[in-house]
From TrEMBL:
InterPro entries: Hexapep (IPR001451), Hexapep_transf_CS (IPR018357), LacA-like (IPR039369), Mac_dom (IPR024688), Trimer_LpxA-like_sf (IPR011004). SMART domains: Mac. It comes from Pontibacter anaerobius. This is Acetyltransferase. Gene3D superfamilies: Hexapeptide repeat proteins. Belongs to the transferase hexapeptide repeat family. The keyword Magnesium does not apply. PROSITE patterns: HEXAPEP_TRANSFERASES (PS00101).
């Protein structure tokens, strides 16, 4: 029989009130408190907390507090990734972020979701879908990235967009719902 954590990581319905998951979230909340309360000049302390909070991060991860996430361990982050102020990553399932990707302030990344059927939803069970963001992506301020979405490398997502479907590589996309506005030309891709 699978544990609730195993169900969660498999994208199946699971009980978020399970004690193991509650303990994991508490650990994360305590680390986030340390990170978010740290001063700008406490570089070594922030690095220590980030290494513990997001163990699957490449070199040069820069999170501008405040930052929030559910677990941290479900984030796989490339090198030199930047999160501006007040970003949220609900990493119930894996969130993969390619190297040199930039997030504007208030970006929300949601893998967590709930059943559409009201009877299932009332049971308290939930599930998640993974998110993949390629390399060299720029996600503008206040963008919402919904469960199960992939964003291709080198794409730019305009501020305030709600990304509900996959976005290919090398495009500028924006809107609610987010859609491709245009393909990036060679100079924009290779600059």
């Amino acid at each position: 029989m699978k544990t609730e954590k195993e169900k969660m990581l498999a994208g199946e319905l699971y009980d978020p009130l399970d004690q193991e998951l509650a303990d994991d979230r508490l650990r994360t909340r305590l680390l986030l408190k340390e990170l978010n309360d740290s001063r700008e000049d406490e570089v070594e302390e922030r690095a220590r907390v980030l290494k513990e909070l997001i163990p699957n991060a490449g070199e040069g991860l820069w999170l501008q507090p405040p930052f929030y996430c559910d677990y941290g361990y479900n984030m796989v982050v490339g090198e030199k990734v930047f999160f501006n102020f007040n970003c949220v990553v609900l990493d119930v399932m894996q969130v993969t972020i390619g190297s040199r990707t930039l997030f504007g302030p208030n970006v929300q990344v949601y893998t967590a979701t709930h059943p559409i059927n009201h009877v299932e939803r009332a049971s308290g069970l939930e599930f998640a879908k993974p998110i993949t963001i390629g390399e060299d992506v720029w996600v503008g301020g206040s963008v919402v990235i919904c469960p199960g979405v992939s964003i291709g490398s080198r794409s730019v997502i305009g501020a305030g967009s709600v990304v509900t479907k996959d976005i290919p590589a090398d495009v500028f996309a924006a809107g609610n719902p987010c859609k491709v506005i245009r393909h990036l030309d060679k100079d924009e891709r290779d600059a």
